[in-house]
Batch of 3 targets.
Target 1
Amino acid sequence: MTDIDYAALAREAGLERVGARPSLPSYLKEMWQRRHFATRLAKYQIEASLAQNRLGLAWVVLNPLLQAAVYGLVFGVIMDRSSRAGVNFIPFLVSGFFVFHFFGRSFSQGAKAITGNASLVRSLGFPRMLLPVSAVVREIYELVPMMGVLAVILIGFGELPTWRWLLVPFILALMTLFNTGVALIAARLTVHLRDVTQIIPVVTRLLMYMTGIFYSIEEVLADNPPWMLTLAQLNPVHDYIQMVRTCVLEGQTVNSLIVITAFVAAVVFFIAGIVFFWSAEERYGRD
Amino acid sequence: MTEPRNPTVVVDNLHVDYKTFASGKAAADRRSLMSRQRGIRIVHALKGVSFVAHEGESIGVIGHNGSGKSTLMRTIAGLIQPAKGAVYGASRPALLGVNAALINGLTGEKNVMLGGLALGMSPEEVDARRDEIIEFSGIREFIDLPMKAYSSGMAARLRFSIAISREHQVLLVDEALAVGDKAFREKSEQRIRDLREQAGTVFLVSHSMRSILDTCTRVLWIDHGTLRMDGDPHDVIDAYKKSK
């Protein structure tokens, strides 16, 4: 090797190590400066994914609506109705499924955010967190028309608007914090271990059945020991859905456990996700 | 040791390795690694490269396929974390690669916006430079078509134009001059010379010895992950040609 002290030479010239992870505040500041990249990427990706279809942007709403229809057919028509006595089933199903869809897509798209954009990550230097955030932004863009359709369905099935509908955006904002945290954690885990992508659909499916999209958890577990219901209500996804349902449907209620879990999960996952993702910032271009 | 010019990039004993999945014979070769995970194999792409680049230099990087040139560029740009050693730079060096990603299903114009934003410009700045970028690429009549309809040369020209639209103190160009027709190549070479005069440093990876001789003031020869030779373009290229 040579006997030149390169590190000292660099220090003298005032050069900094390239690719070093910035401190968290300056990282977030750079994120904010480049936020337009995340929002445009989200918007363009929706356009690009739908440009080939005849019905174009209508699929943003049609796809989850058709999926909800399948579950409605299986659980609403074929199976017996004791699991949701006294529930206005169609609005119950659609509100639950649309809100769950927001979570499920943020989770799966967030997980693919780094590995699926490998060529972008390999060729340009920008805060990597923009990619999973962009994935969540994309889901927010898709959620807006879905909520519009939900409003139409609610009114069509006799659930008339009340002032409580105005709370829904705040609940969804809280859920967005939670989803972002989950997306960031999933994005980093996928980089370390590709196998995570194989597990995510299973986890999402499990969460969906545990969340009570097409049955009421509160009804089904009414005769079981109370700890089972408490456990089910510690699932934040269920809590956001239950809070939305309480706002838009007659006869749905929340308790303090649901509300507290929803707030705590949002804050904890959001902060943990940011720190967890940021601490591996230097490693994302590697594999 | 006193340098007449300011260093812009210092590369200090750089080692880079890749973890990759091998199968067949390559996987069976390494018994010790099988205990961890079958078929994982470590490839040492760079084995201790050191040099100092200065303001106003235009440095050609040559070597055979697989010698580690592109890895070196990506590591200087901070896109790969070195296993050992470090790269120091005044600002984050910008890498301009042929396969810089843009979204294929979108029109050229939207890709200009996205590429500009990815480089750290604001939407207003991209709007202001859009005409200049499109003009430089010379594909104005196709700018409203999706990029997948472009020929590989057209797409590469657009990417080059986007990347070059912003002033970079250190610019890394990876094989980009190999694409495009003669007129576009001359235009890009001129642009690279201009950039160098703005007290920047340019690295150019190419297999075209002619474009290296035309644009570079210094040449690094990378061979099997080590720096084989570093010096005057004519000397290094002569030695490189003889080795073949």
Target 2
Amino acid sequence: MWLAQSNINPDNRLKSMNPFLTEKHREVRRSVRAFCEAELAPIAKDLDQEARFPWEVVEKMGALGYFGIQVPKDLGGAGMDSVSYVVAIEEISRVCGGMGLCVTVHNSVAVHPIMAFGTREQQEKWVPDLAAGKKIGAFCLTEPNAGSDASGIQAVSLLDGDHYVVNANKVFVTNGGVADTCLIFVRTDPEAGPRGISVIVAERGAPGFVVGDLEDLCGMRCNPVSSIRLNDCRIPAGNLLGREGMGLAIGLAGLDTGRIGIAAQALGIAQAALEEGIRYSKQRSQFRVPIAKHQSISNMIADMATQVDAARLMVYRAAALRDTGKPFSKESAMAKLFASETASTVTDMAVQIHGGYGYSKDYPVERYFRDARVTRIYEGTSEVHRTVIARSVLGKF
Amino acid sequence: MGIHIIVCIKSVVLDAPGGKIVRTPDTTTINPFDLSALEVALAARDELGGTITALSMGPETSSLSLYSALSMGVDRGVLLCDKTLAGADTLATSNALCAGIRLLEPYDLVLFGTRTADSDTGQVGPQTAVGLNLPLVTQARDIVFQENGLEVGAECDGFRQRFAVDLPCALTVAPEAAKARDASLGGIEDAFAGSIETWNLERLGLSPDQVGDAGSPTKIKGMTPASKGKQCDFITGSIEEQADKLLEKLVNAGLIQ
């Protein structure tokens, strides 16, 4: 589906129907798809229904490098590029959105900031276990009164000797129930406004580190999203990422990258809904013909396929820009906005194509429909993304 | 130094849209019956040390199956690729593989799948073994390395057989012998950082009349789609027995591994 004939040179992207993919990326797709269909597909429905985190699959994913996709080999990662990363996230999410979420958040907003802003000593301390999936990472920014406005956080951290004393109440923490290594956004200088925000790495098990109840969410139910509270939690000063006051810069850098992953996740969910829509429309007959023969249904399939294809090109473009070292902030925002809106639209259409059965838990499209909804909310809402894009397009005037 | 195992693999056609076979990256994949042979080789190398060479014959697209093998952990991939190799029957294919394998000497073991998912003759492994004058065990299910050779278990016509075989030897490996490992992302990265060696007819030291269409004593006179009549099979027995029988059918059909 992805490449034109005779595209054999591993670096030859020019003959490709998708100009961003090489043969290596095709192999990533083939391999991750085979793994997910064998290991995740048979249990995805149960994971959703039971809100269960599949440790048994996580262990296998860890051994295959899924938790350190872009981490350099010398720190135990797979050393791959961003395009490989989005292909892998897309394929995991095509089968199980909640696990796609786990892997993308771990890679892009937990591991990546440590790689980008951590010292070599910090990288060697945390990254090998994270890359192997032995420890799970989390990004703890959102608070009850601070979401889109990240500068409004109230968590505080005061230096006391060679330790920070941290008090924080973080909510909607993806992977929160299983996370070992958490990036906590705190105020280290309460008087300095947005410039007083820093990132401290807190480790599960530290006295005062409390995992709250798991959220009972509409979708992504296998992901143990929870609150995390730090009550007078003493964290070594050496766990500060970057310098004091760099918190927002670290957060924005993480979110720029994270958006590509969430866009890929939305794309995978949309792809799954498209495939189910096609399958069902060919198999279900009404008025003595498969419903795909009815123009109202085939038009829906055409629109779904077109939107998914457009989203895919945008997601891969953002990743390819990142790989070539070019600015990708606007493109990643556009990809996240479009892919998440597409996921919502396409999963809704897939439910419509299925009729009453689409509203039943006997068919996977209702899970896709629920999973897709949150992609327009987390890692920057669609509204915030429109602001980011508009600012970039309009410039200063 | 360890052992040197050569695994012969084929890139097979997954789909023939409109009845026409077109070999593209999207319509071809590694023959599923070769995966157990690859896994047997990888497990042996992990235990004993050494190297594995994956060898294939086919058009350029076949290199992708060799990259898949490298991604799983194979050390070296060699593709026999030349216009004169096209149109080969199983004997001409074996002639080319024999020449390729001789160029890879010294080796201890040559492995094949039992058959292929596209043409399904099951002849190439045995013919190549004969061409190389190697002892051969077909349908190998378990392989134990011993001091001076192998002990191989095989199953045929409802009987279990055990063979002692001298090295070097050739085996066709049954799908039941091993479940292939998944390629790791790091393995894929390493595979594509390397390259596949491509050998032409001159490199093989063969003449055009020994290979390809010219070297094939059998010719395809015609090919038409077989009847698509659906056949219904009733599987009987307890639920467990039914599940086992269904599993066996799916494995034998190459649909699952």
Target 3
Amino acid sequence: MPNLQRFLSSSPLAATSFCSGSITSASVFKVQSRGVRYKNSGGMIGGRRKRIPLNWRDLNFNPARLPSAWKPPDWDKKQEIDYEREKELAKYTPGYKPAIPSHEKDDYHKEPVYFINSSLPFSEGLKQALFVTKSVIADSGLPKQIHNLAESVSYTEQDQRAIQVIRHAHLFDVDPRSLDKENKVQRWKADNYRIVAKPDRYCPLIMKELIRLCETRSFQLSESFRNRIVIEGPRSIACFRRDCSSLDTEFLPVQDTSWNIRFDLCADMQIHSKDPLSAFADSNAVLATKDISLAPIYPIMPIADLKSTHNYDFVTNSGFSSKFSRPHLHTIALFNTDQLPPNLIYGKMLTHLFTLLYSKALETYGDNPQDLSSPLSAQCVASDGRVFQFMCMQLNTTKLNSDDGIKNMVWVDNEYVKEELYQTDDGMTSAAMYEECGHTTWKSPEYYTGYNPDVFKLFQGFWLNGVL
Amino acid sequence: MLIDGVKRTLVQQLNICFKQPKIFGKVQPLSPTSFIHSQRQFLQKLNIFNSARKFHSSPFINGRYGHRLVKLWEQPEYTTEPLHVYRTGGRLPVKNWKDEIVPGRVWTAKLGGGLPRKWYWVDTHRMTAEEVVAGAVFQEKITKIMPDDNRSAFIALVAGPVKRRWILCTENMKVGDLVTNSAQLTESLTGWTPNDGDAYPLCLLAIGTKVCSVEFFPGKGGQIARSAGAFCTITKKFDGRVQLQMPSKREIVVNEKCVAVVGTVSNSNHWNEDWGSAFRRREYGLRPRTGRKHKNDGRFARRAMPVRAPLIMPDKPFLQKDNNFEE
């Protein structure tokens, strides 16, 4: 038997012939022909098929070049609104609010309005805002009376207290979002391992704590702190028609240079007082603004990048009734939690100041555009927790029909703002209260570096303006 | 002499062959001298856009930044904000049983992974066809210049009269400069000579000027010479048409109302920069490769090729079965 076994293994063909049965013979045939068939026919037994079509390059299957292939097939269907079906649904379902096309709504106007929200600032920042609100930068730096006040009000321990506020916000403040163990708040994975404080947490905290320091100081100095009130998140609307007659329309795509503009804004914090702020500039200085021309914004138009709608309500509203006990605006505080560059933030501050002052002026002096007999003035502070911006404004006119005549006046803490106005977004600078603070600054024993005492001094002077 | 399996005359070898223009849009009668190897070559001769080697499975030929999926249909209008780039992993879109579109079978195995990147909506229409017809003139101010993850050239953010937008940055653009888009020559803006970065219709530009981001058809947006350091040169002008030399040295004849940007594209030293490491390629989403390229197939030298005839474009784009978005 071993001899026979050896014989069988050496010659399989003989073995197949020896073993009766067609299955074994077929399997041998398959083994021999599989490689050839695989090459030629690509897995198909009967027909001839090329594995790669001849014109496979023509098919253009590149997914990067064919984003439309990734588009959901029902995308366009979902975007469309069937208004007739909406009407039918409204008939038979009580409480259903049907979607109406915009031209059939009640607040539809033929002429569009260009609007600004707190989420949609001027894209060109301060330069564009100055032109739209018909205001000029009056002087380099803030008015002198604020600097003098800041000097007189300051005391020795204030820097130590301000630093303690900063260190509290950056080092010892516990973010409740880091404590949720059920993981209800969906966050990036990296945030779980982060110890550093986040700007949307520390920025309002620092501002409110600094304001508290100023209020304690005002309590020491006088008894007028009762005249004030702090309001968080009030809404105010200013609607006006702006006619920019001085625009050179030779290389601009429009001939008509008058637009309806609407500011609809919510300030983060706002301080109102019983007595109005004293004016920053004399009547002579106000008259002198006739000769100053508006800062040119060529090549952009004043409405560049603004959104427009036909559905709007063209009514100005300061958000306060006339019987309100503290009717006069003192200061606005803005939290720059998105860490916008200073140029955009200055533009945002100016729009906030203008809406509140303009709506107040319309309430007191009437809707007719005019030069105000006693100008309104207010202040604004903005911060991202580290960098502070200060602005003062004096509303001299509500005549926005032309670029000539008396203009509104603006003061900014940056002394070189007139030069930096025409640089890029990143070109403008403003003062920082400290360089760095946090657990990462372990090299300095106090965990902060580069404290600038002038910033809080100015902040305090701003806040105590009109108290003494 | 046998090159590429074709017998060529001495004149053809010396690159002095007669230029025989090809007209697209209708089927061109083939000359008896031309020799057709295969069906594919026939298709190539018929229509360049449907059969030429425009796309390849290899990202090294398509371009190193060629792997992207941006959901532009979700955008209601133009934005300057960066959009998210979804990685496909070299997979084709298929429907699943829910009729959602998901990545399906592998189309190319050479893509995958990589760092997250952002896509900036670069506007290739410096002027639309309507503005060219109306003779519009407007200027834009450059506010920012920065590199882009998805292309070799730099991009520039410009503030125009109506909106701000991203455009391709040319070599000599600087922040704070004004660039002009004009359909007529005006002395007051540029002093009769176009500056670098200005956009004009080709009829207003002189012969010999270097231009980039050139349109093939009026109003379609710039299509050729958009990568780093690329430019076209204007060689001829005749009855409403302009002949250009493309970066591939091939010549093309287009309508004179096609808009082009004066100057060369920025980052011209791009070809000279080094990848640094193999991991750098992975950061761009390219998987490792093996083997050697035999792309030119000249073995050890450049293959001598005859000069190809210029392409002649019609006034309107002919029918193409192509659903491409821009970019």
